Fold this sequence. Notes:
Layout: H1 8-41, H2 49-72, H3 74-98, H4 101-119, H5 121-127, H6 134-142, H7 145-160, H8 171-189, H9 195-202, H10 217-221, H11 226-253, H12 261-273, H13 276-286, H14 288-304, H15 312-339, H16 343-374, H17 378-405
Amino acid sequence: xxxxxxxxxxxxxxxxxxxxxxxxxxxxxxxxxxxxxxxxxxxxxxxxxxxxxxxxxxxxxxxxxxxxxxxxxxxxxxxxxxxxxxxxxxxxxxxxxxxxxxxxxxxxxxxxxxxxxxxxxxxxxxxxxxxxxxxxxxxxxxxxxxxxxxxxxxxxxxxxxxxxxxxxxxxxxxxxxxxxxxxxxxxxxxxxxxxxxxxxxxxxxxxxxxxxxxxxxxxxxxxxxxxxxxxxxxxxxxxxxxxxxxxxxxxxxxxxxxxxxxxxxxxxxxxxxxxxxxxxxxxxxxxxxxxxxxxxxxxxxxxxxxxxxxxxxxxxxxxxxxxxxxxxxxxxxxxxxxxxxxxxxxxxxxxxxxxxxxxxxxxxxxxxxxxxxxxxxxxxxxxxxxxxxxxxxxxxxxxxxxxxxxxxxxxxx
Length: 413
């Protein structure tokens, strides 16, 4: 008797909804992690420490989380990640309320681990769709973050409205963020069967065996198309989060009230995810390489525009465009990495990708916070421009070389 078809649509909706919950937590972290650490620790030169902790922890957690997904399944690891998010929100609230640095810093560590794990839901998305529809399938799950972009400002902005911006004012937003993560935990726990099992039902991806022994990571990295996908994902994620996490400081320093940071970050998250279903389908049609390069170029223009924007509307549009560019390059990179791996290898490679991207993003946030304090917003604009233009040029040359040798992956172009 044949096994019944897996509920791919139901699982996709549940995973998308869980990313909506994570997106709400991400917005709070992006908007006020810098402010929380600044108010509690009180050292202006360390303005980038909060996001650096979140990103650095997430980076270090990503690879072991990906390996655990390959060993134990996608869902147990996702449940554990959302549980850490609950703990992180509560600890950050306690630290802000009692003006204690240690609970805040430990809470941000937990938030970073949770965010990194939740982002690996795209591994589960890649499991459930064949290569010809993989970018679109990943985009369906990522689209859930749009609702987090709507919920975040709707919940957090009123909690800060008409309040003096001190540490006590940040207690309720962090508690609300923990509540979002409770919801996300319940949603991922309801996914059945585990997407890793669905991947085995669908069959082996290009170049892999369904139940074979996973290849060493060094061997996987030598497969055609893997290195440009990793480089694009690293550059796009690191520059995106580096600018996103420091925008709140720039906006406040220009004299705007703190509450407008949430709509700006909301516009950014909408840019990342609102058009992602269209983006995913387009990537499947035009090829991975064109999407990688095109997304990086959009990010370059967005980054350099920070040199002259001053109004809230201009900041919102710039961050929206930055998110849209990230959407193209990051989804294309994820699809390309999933195409190049078997189910038993996929979590490890995507975790390695997130390790590199997160560490780079953490370094950029910490260095960017110092540079912003010492030089000004030009450090973000020019730095972001260069960090996405250089990889775009290398990817074009790499792709042309592979095509000349007849080694380009079938869906790369």
